[in-house]
User: Which sequence fits this backbone?
């Protein structure tokens, strides 16, 4: 990365904080299915009352539920996503979009068979690509496909407009083990079982790199040898941008 691109990236992050002062959008992930459930804890970080509007989507980008909560100063509230879409039968997963004019933070709790397995803390708002448009945004997560560890990766489009992306899976030597193309409709998600695609006997591990035409939510799930969920990571922080 050149010095100019580093400066541009720093400028983008700083300006993004100011651009989102009057309105912030957050992208969260949910799993609402027979074995898994999701609770979103939202906290008001301000000293005044604020409101947060939530929209829940399935993997295809279809709106499942809307709600709005009002929080007193420094107060917190938990939303159980399964209850918000209880009329939906079967497996539902995808995007939880949150909009607010205040300063808030989220804790996304994932339960398996009624036991809370992992939590992800989110306090970074999305950068709106229409404010400072760039041609591509790069993200990365770690993965392992080693038999005792399994990884699955999801890419979530938080916008109403389509997003295109490419995913490269690199092994520890840097070689490309897999490549996927993604075309996501508005608010839609794509999910990839790396262990199933790469083979659990391959003993592969390394990095997943995603290049997207707009800011996205990248989700990584990590499972043990019994395929039980042990951790989840959600990131909207890109490590590189293309002008």
Assistant:
């Amino acid at each position: 990365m050149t010095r100019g691109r580093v400066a541009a990236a720093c400028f983008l992050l700083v300006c993004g904080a100011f651009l989102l002062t009057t309105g912030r959008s957050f992208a969260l992930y949910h799993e609402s299915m027979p074995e898994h459930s999701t609770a979103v804890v939202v906290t008001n970080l301000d000293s005044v009352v604020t409101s947060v509007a939530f929209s829940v989507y399935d993997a295809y980008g279809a709106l499942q539920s809307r709600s709005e909560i009002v929080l007193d100063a420094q107060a917190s509230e938990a939303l159980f996503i399964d209850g918000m879409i209880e009329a939906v039968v079967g497996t539902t997963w995808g995007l939880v979009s949150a909009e607010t004019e205040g300063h808030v933070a989220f804790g996304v709790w994932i339960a398996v068979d009624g036991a809370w397995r992992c939590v992800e803390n989110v306090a970074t708002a999305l950068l709106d690509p229409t404010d400072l448009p760039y041609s591509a945004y790069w993200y990365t997560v770690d993965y392992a496909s080693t038999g005792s560890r399994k990884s699955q990766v999801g890419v979530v489009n938080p916008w109403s407009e389509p997003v295109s992306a490419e995913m490269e899976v690199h092994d520890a030597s840097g070689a490309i083990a897999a490549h996927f193309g993604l075309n996501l409709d508005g608010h839609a998600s794509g999910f990839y079982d790396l262990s199933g695609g790469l083979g659990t006997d391959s003993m592969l591990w390394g990095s997943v790199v995603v290049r997207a035409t707009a800011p996205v939510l990248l989700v990584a799930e990590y499972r043990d040898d019994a395929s039980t969920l042990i951790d989840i990571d959600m990131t909207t922080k890109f490590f590189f941008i293309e002008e």
Notes: Residues 50 and 71 are 5 Å apart (CA to CA).
